[in-house]
Design goal:
Length: about 160
């Protein structure tokens, strides 16, 4: 038999399209090629061909998801970047204080968001954005006293 004949036999038996059958076997049930082929009653090579054709191999799915995520990322900061005025003067430029540090971190976050929006999510420099967002979060935790509580809790664990 040919691939199309096997396809017809399997679709008639399961009363579904081959795409849906393969999705259930590969994604929902997570069966490998040997078990999937055995379940359908076809040769392993045919099963592998179908799995590859419908892009249901785990590596293909991971790749497709990564491409989809990258596609979505280009719109991530688009609206925020429109509202950012990067030319406004710094308020704490002459200071070496927490307020000055916080302002500089905020500016770097804004800069990387704008860069991300301008490049369509493809600028490698924007990889630093999570670092600056984390620094901003640390400053907030410090101001709220949460960082001090965490340090005390860690030192209590270490001394126990």
């Amino acid at each position: 038999m040919r691939y199309m004949q096997y396809k017809g036999v399997v679709e008639r038996e399961y009363k579904k399209s081959l795409r849906k059958i393969m999705y259930e076997i590969c994604v929902v049930e997570g069966l490998n090629a040997s078990l999937g082929a055995k379940k359908l009653g076809v040769a392993k090579e045919i099963f592998i061909f179908w799995r590859h054709f419908y892009r249901l191999d785990k590596n293909q799915q991971v790749f497709d998801q990564a491409v989809s995520d990258l596609d979505q990322m280009k719109f991530l900061y688009l609206n925020e970047a429109k509202e950012i005025d990067a030319s406004r003067p710094l308020q704490h430029e002459a200071e070496e204080s927490l307020q000055g540090l916080e302002e500089l971190i905020d500016r770097m976050v804004e800069y990387y968001k704008c860069l991300h929006a301008e490049s369509g999510g493809l600028a490698t420099e924007t990889g630093k954005l999570p670092l600056y967002e984390f620094a901003k979060e640390l400053l907030t935790d410090y101001r709220n006293g949460d960082l001090l509580k965490e340090v005390k809790a860690q030192s209590d664990k270490a001394s126990s």
